[in-house]
Specification:
This protein is mainly α. It has a domain at about 30-75. Helices cover about 50% and strands about 0% of the residues. The chain has three helices and no strands. The protein has helices at about 30-40, 45-55, 60-75. α1 (about 30-40) packs across α2 (about 45-55) and α2 (about 45-55) crosses α3 (about 60-75). The longest helix is centred in the C-terminal third of the chain and has 15 residues, at about 60-75. The chain is globular, with a radius of gyration of 16 Å.
Length: about 80
């Protein structure tokens, strides 16, 4: 079944926007995130560094979950 333009599919998709922290001069990229994961010892440290870059995160719990997964995968 094709979805016609303008009709809702019932799934909300947030618009893409760059994550620019307060006072940040650049947009963090996945490469920046990977570098931070490699540099920091714990998931808590990763979260702290990412929140420095992206203090305006809508849902930091997602960041905490992802940081925990990334650090566990690294080990």
């Amino acid at each position: 079944m094709a979805v016609e333009a303008g009709l809702s599919t019932g799934v909300h998709v947030a618009p893409m926007r760059p994550f620019v922290g307060v006072g940040a001069q650049e947009v963090a990229t996945p490469r920046d995130t990977a570098r931070i994961v490699e540099q920091e010892a714990t998931a808590e440290d990763v979260v702290a560094r990412m929140l420095e870059l992206h203090a305006d995160r809508d849902n930091p719990r997602v960041l905490r979950f992802g940081a925990g997964q990334a650090v566990a995968k690294r080990s």
